[in-house]
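Following up on my earlier message about 2'-monophosphoadenosine-5'-diphosphate. Here are the inputs again, as you asked, copied directly from the submission form:
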Amino acid sequence: MPTAATRLCGIVLHPAGHTRSPAMHNAAFAALEIDASYLAFDVPPEDLADAIAGVRALGLEQIAVSIPHKEAVMDLVDDVDEHARRIGAVNTVTRRDGRLVGSNTDWLGSNRALERETEIAGKRAVVLGAGGAARAVVFGLLERGAEVHVLNRTVERAERLAKELGASGAAEISALADLDHDILVNTTSVGLREDVSPVPAEMLRPGSVVMDAVYDPEVTRLLRDAANRGARPLGGKWMLVYQAAAQFETWTGREAPIEVLANAFDEAGR
Ligand code: ATR
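Thanks, got it. Here's what our run produced:
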């Protein structure tokens, strides 16, 4: 039971929809016997400033920031760390010495998920998509020393993203046919709750690591095709688990229990 000493964390998002973050973080708090509680707050854009003022006034320890607030929140916190500034988005606000510090753990989540299957440094990576999710993934890959190509239905968006972050190239998705690569990450919404893939199965390379940011369904068409082609599929669940782990570690300073987070993620989806 919460007491007067219980510390509070949470996530702000809109619409509330279904977020598995409370399940993951509360399970981690319980496993490490940390007296804290984690709630979801449905905050429409026009109320975000009040919500952050509330975080300040009520002394919440950490707030995860989800769609559609990741950019707007940057103007509402006291500091934004360098990585989040370069990505252009904050997904985590943590109280530190009375100040609210914005950071980004999405890129860490992507890297740590990939690192379950492969090293990143020196590898040739292709990222499908050029939205907010792509920015964090591309940033992470570059930060670890991969060579990155950005492919998107709308080429101009891919070109802009590649230029801003320093990726090697940008093109249409069909260019994948001619791009040798070790790592492929889908950040488009193609495959979300429907059995379609953003790329033809023949373009997937045997031996490559194929990660899908889409986690509903857990095994997407892209991941199934990857397995059939002899590539190594990696579900979007791991990106979410590891970005949550990085948030947990930012606030608590303790190593996150990955299996606990992963199990809680699974259970929350049932
Ligand atoms: P997020 O912030 O989650 O990345 P976003 O900014 O809306 O969301 O980006 C969605 C991405 O999915 C974009 O790369 C989009 O391609 P466009 O830039 O051409 O719009 C991609 N996407 C969405 N639906 C798609 C579809 N049917 N086919 C191909 N790409 C699609």
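One observation from looking it over: The pocket of 2'-monophosphoadenosine-5'-diphosphate is lined by residues 129-134, 152-154, 157, 187-190, 198 (CB under 6 Å). Hope that helps, and feel free to reply on this thread.
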